[in-house]
Design goal:
With about 260 residues, the protein is α/β, with parallel strands linked by helices. The chain is about 35% helix and about 15% strand. Helix 1 (about 20-35) links the parallel strand 1 (about 15) and strand 2.
Length: about 260
């Protein structure tokens, strides 16, 4: 079987939401390095756009929680590059908040960013991809929080659980021309998340991960390349776990004397 170069995306067009920093920037750079034209978005322009081998991403300032802005983002990609092959719904996140006192406005904003926004951008992308001979694919970046919530993440957990459900529903409706898949991310070492993992920079946290390290943004980016490639041509409605095997059970760690520092969110 000749598979050629399965991650050659020359001539392909990719949108990465929240693609100006952290995981999103790594995803954007991976697609650039593989030959794709990439459009990233954020609330405001960064000092430097993600780049690879002298090429840079295009950028559009977009609040993806706004359906009209989400549609305009997709229109920009098509107007600039002529098509759209891959959408990576990466924008998301949430600060910690006590569920008992979280305001309605806070909950609405977190759900809008982590669930409604991916839906809006995916709808706009689907309208384009369904008209293309080769269709396209949507990749939703989820979180292990949807399965194993932590204190302070109620709204985020609910939204991310909804994103996984949305993925399966869209995969049923939009196939065979458009594939929709999901990545469950675990503990990821990024600059913005460093404070979450404790004063030791996450060294203690790695004791609970079977792979004995936290993920880096490139781990998620490589998973995106796979799901967008021809190698995954029959992968639809799937969840790809990029979490190093999850977390070891507390009873296992306790029996071996492993102590993980506890801090309230």
């Amino acid at each position: 079987m000749d598979v050629g170069n399965p991650i050659d995306f020359t001539g392909r067009v990719v949108i990465v939401t929240g693609g100006t920093k952290g995981i999103g920037a790594a995803i954007a750079e991976a697609f650039l390095a593989s030959g794709a034209d990439v459009l990233v978005c954020g609330r405001s322009a960064p000092g430097t756009l993600p780049g690879s081998d002298g090429r840079r991403c295009a950028f559009r300032a977009t609040d993806v929680r706004d359906p009209e802005a989400a549609a305009a983002l997709v229109d920009t990609a098509v107007e600039r590059f002529g098509r759209l092959d891959v959408l990576v719904n990466n924008a998301g996140g949430s600060p910690a908040a006590d569920a008992a006192t979280a305001s309605p406005r806070f909950v609405e904003k977190i759900v809008a960013l982590n669930l409604l926004a991916p839906f809006y951008v995916a709808q706009a992308a689907n309208r384009v991809m369904q008209s293309q001979d080769e269709g396209g694919c949507v990749i939703n970046i989820g979180s292990v929080a949807s399965r194993t919530p932590q204190p302070g993440t109620a709204a985020y957990t609910a939204a991310k659980a909804g994103l996984w459900g949305l993925t399966r529903a869209l995969a049923l409706e939009w196939a065979p021309r458009v594939r929709v898949n999901h990545i469950t991310t675990g503990l990821i070492r990024t600059e913005s998340a460093a404070k979450v993992y404790g004063e030791d920079g996450g060294a203690a946290v790695t004791e609970v991960v079977p792979m004995r390290r936290m993920a880096v943004p490139g781990d998620v980016a490589h998973a995106c390349l796979y799901l967008a490639s021809g190698l995954a041509a029959y992968v639809n409605g799937a969840d790809l776990a990029v979490h190093g095997g999850g977390e070891l059970p507390a009873r296992y760690l306790a029996a071996r004397g492993v102590r993980i520092p506890f801090s309230s969110p």
